[in-house]
TrEMBL record:
The keyword Transmembrane applies. It holds the Pfam family DUF6126. It comes from the Bacteria. This is Small hydrophobic protein. Keywords: Membrane, Transmembrane, Transmembrane helix. The chain crosses the membrane at residues 9-31. InterPro entries: DUF6126.
Amino acid sequence: MAEKFPRGLWVRLIIYVAVGHVFAAFVYLLFTLGAQNQ
């Protein structure tokens, strides 16, 4: 299955997933801190 996709596509996919998770964690942290401050 790895032979069907070029290596650059896998690298780009991993980067997108990592950035998406970091962004989601940052937004979740903002909402959590905002709820605690009220």
